[in-house]
Amino acid sequence: MDDQQILDLAHRYAAAELAGDVDAYDDLLHKDFRGIGPVGFVLDRDAWAQRHRGDLTNHEFGIEQPELRPVGDATVLVTAIQRQRTTAMGRDTSGSFRIGMVAVRDGRRWLLAQIQLSGPLVAPGARPGWQREGAQDRAGFTPPGTDS
pLDDT tens digits, residue range 48-62? Predict the structure, then answer.
């Protein structure tokens, strides 16, 4: 595996996201691709690309601090930070997210088989913007640093 091929794949993905280039995904995403968004939705390859035909606009988009971990000869796990300035469905969805990518060798080329986002990232000890004072999750867990 050539690290630069995987880094190039991640940066071509970021460029396609920034440009909203639906056609670029044919050369980036594996036919069995799954994308998992930060709130848990799961999309196949076509649906992931089609997000850009709706009300999604990336004004800034980048993949930063990628860490590559090969698993055998045909799979590489990538952990990075995705930073975006984005509007979706009329709402500001900007932020920094942890992104996990699974790159697989398909013949002579590398493709993304999965992307999973989590976040948005917050500073240690800080409360996420969506966390209300005294809030508990559905299981009754009160996150550290929140008042109950």
Answer: 999 999 889 999 999
